[in-house]
Write a structure and sequence with these properties.
CATH topology of the largest domain: Transcriptional Co-activator pc4, Chain A
Low-confidence stretches: none
CATH architecture of the largest domain: Roll
Number of strands: 7
Strand order of the largest sheet: 3-4-5-6-7
Number of domains: 2
Shape: elongated
Distance between the termini: 43 Å
CATH class of the largest domain: Mainly Beta
Radius of gyration: 20 Å
Largest sheet: 5 strands, antiparallel
Number of helices: 3
Structural class: alpha+beta
Mean pLDDT: 90
Strand content: 25-35%
Helix content: 25-40%
Length: 127
Protein backbone atom coordinates (compact mmCIF):
# COMPACT_ATOMS: atom_id res chain seq x y z
CA UNK A 1 0.00 0.00 0.00
CA UNK A 2 2.89 2.36 0.66
CA UNK A 3 4.26 1.48 -2.81
CA UNK A 4 7.59 0.29 -1.46
CA UNK A 5 9.13 -2.25 -3.82
CA UNK A 6 11.58 -3.74 -1.30
CA UNK A 7 9.32 -6.50 0.04
CA UNK A 8 10.98 -9.85 0.49
CA UNK A 9 8.13 -11.78 2.13
CA UNK A 10 4.69 -10.79 0.91
CA UNK A 11 1.64 -10.86 3.16
CA UNK A 12 -1.60 -11.13 1.17
CA UNK A 13 -4.36 -9.18 2.87
CA UNK A 14 -8.10 -9.26 2.16
CA UNK A 15 -11.01 -7.26 3.53
CA UNK A 16 -14.71 -7.64 2.76
CA UNK A 17 -15.01 -3.90 2.09
CA UNK A 18 -12.19 -3.92 -0.49
CA UNK A 19 -12.49 -5.89 -3.74
CA UNK A 20 -8.80 -6.71 -4.34
CA UNK A 21 -6.20 -8.73 -2.49
CA UNK A 22 -3.38 -6.49 -1.30
CA UNK A 23 0.24 -7.63 -1.33
CA UNK A 24 2.04 -5.87 1.52
CA UNK A 25 5.15 -6.14 3.64
CA UNK A 26 5.37 -7.05 7.29
CA UNK A 27 4.98 -3.52 8.69
CA UNK A 28 1.91 -2.77 6.57
CA UNK A 29 0.40 -6.14 7.56
CA UNK A 30 0.94 -5.24 11.21
CA UNK A 31 -0.90 -1.93 10.79
CA UNK A 32 -3.72 -3.41 8.71
CA UNK A 33 -4.33 -6.26 11.18
CA UNK A 34 -3.65 -4.09 14.22
CA UNK A 35 -1.54 -7.03 15.34
CA UNK A 36 2.11 -6.26 15.96
CA UNK A 37 3.13 -9.86 16.73
CA UNK A 38 1.36 -12.18 14.24
CA UNK A 39 2.86 -10.86 10.98
CA UNK A 40 6.40 -10.98 12.41
CA UNK A 41 5.84 -14.55 13.61
CA UNK A 42 4.52 -15.62 10.19
CA UNK A 43 7.47 -13.99 8.45
CA UNK A 44 9.94 -15.60 10.86
CA UNK A 45 8.36 -19.01 10.23
CA UNK A 46 8.68 -18.51 6.48
CA UNK A 47 12.34 -17.49 6.83
CA UNK A 48 13.05 -20.61 8.92
CA UNK A 49 11.29 -22.81 6.36
CA UNK A 50 13.27 -21.25 3.50
CA UNK A 51 16.57 -21.81 5.35
CA UNK A 52 15.57 -25.38 6.12
CA UNK A 53 14.68 -26.12 2.48
CA UNK A 54 17.97 -24.64 1.34
CA UNK A 55 20.00 -26.68 3.84
CA UNK A 56 18.02 -29.87 3.17
CA UNK A 57 19.58 -30.34 -0.27
CA UNK A 58 23.06 -30.39 1.27
CA UNK A 59 22.25 -33.19 3.76
CA UNK A 60 24.45 -36.28 3.60
CA UNK A 61 22.34 -39.39 3.08
CA UNK A 62 23.68 -42.78 4.12
CA UNK A 63 23.11 -45.96 2.11
CA UNK A 64 21.38 -49.00 3.60
CA UNK A 65 22.43 -52.61 3.09
CA UNK A 66 19.77 -52.79 0.37
CA UNK A 67 21.35 -49.83 -1.40
CA UNK A 68 18.63 -47.32 -0.50
CA UNK A 69 19.52 -43.79 0.63
CA UNK A 70 18.31 -43.05 4.16
CA UNK A 71 18.52 -40.28 6.70
CA UNK A 72 17.95 -40.43 10.47
CA UNK A 73 16.86 -37.06 11.77
CA UNK A 74 14.65 -35.58 14.48
CA UNK A 75 13.60 -39.02 15.71
CA UNK A 76 12.58 -40.27 12.28
CA UNK A 77 14.05 -42.48 9.59
CA UNK A 78 13.52 -41.35 6.00
CA UNK A 79 14.20 -43.82 3.22
CA UNK A 80 14.18 -43.30 -0.55
CA UNK A 81 13.61 -46.47 -2.54
CA UNK A 82 12.84 -47.54 -6.12
CA UNK A 83 9.13 -47.81 -6.90
CA UNK A 84 7.55 -48.49 -10.28
CA UNK A 85 9.42 -46.29 -12.77
CA UNK A 86 10.82 -43.90 -10.17
CA UNK A 87 11.44 -43.42 -6.46
CA UNK A 88 9.26 -43.11 -3.37
CA UNK A 89 9.77 -42.01 0.25
CA UNK A 90 9.04 -43.95 3.43
CA UNK A 91 9.12 -42.37 6.87
CA UNK A 92 9.06 -44.08 10.23
CA UNK A 93 9.25 -42.88 13.81
CA UNK A 94 12.36 -44.40 15.33
CA UNK A 95 11.81 -46.70 18.26
CA UNK A 96 8.20 -47.45 17.30
CA UNK A 97 6.39 -49.44 14.63
CA UNK A 98 4.75 -46.30 13.21
CA UNK A 99 5.57 -46.00 9.51
CA UNK A 100 4.13 -44.44 6.38
CA UNK A 101 5.09 -45.18 2.78
CA UNK A 102 4.42 -42.38 0.34
CA UNK A 103 2.12 -43.04 -2.59
CA UNK A 104 3.72 -40.50 -4.89
CA UNK A 105 6.42 -41.63 -7.31
CA UNK A 106 9.25 -39.23 -8.18
CA UNK A 107 11.20 -39.22 -11.43
CA UNK A 108 14.61 -39.16 -9.76
CA UNK A 109 16.27 -40.05 -6.50
CA UNK A 110 17.17 -36.38 -6.07
CA UNK A 111 13.50 -35.35 -6.38
CA UNK A 112 12.46 -37.97 -3.83
CA UNK A 113 15.13 -36.76 -1.38
CA UNK A 114 13.82 -33.20 -1.77
CA UNK A 115 10.25 -34.43 -1.12
CA UNK A 116 11.44 -36.25 2.01
CA UNK A 117 11.45 -32.91 3.87
CA UNK A 118 7.69 -32.68 3.34
CA UNK A 119 7.35 -36.28 4.54
CA UNK A 120 9.30 -35.42 7.69
CA UNK A 121 7.11 -32.40 8.41
CA UNK A 122 3.98 -34.53 7.86
CA UNK A 123 5.32 -37.33 10.08
CA UNK A 124 6.09 -34.96 12.95
CA UNK A 125 2.40 -34.06 13.05
CA UNK A 126 0.92 -37.51 12.35
CA UNK A 127 3.23 -40.34 13.44
Amino acid sequence: MCESVDIRYVHYMEHPAYPDTLAVGCVCAEHMEEDYVGPKERESAMRRAARRRKGWAAREWRVSRLGNPYLNTEGFNLTVFPKDDGYAVAVSRRGTDRRQVGKKCYASQHAAKAAALGALIWAKAHL
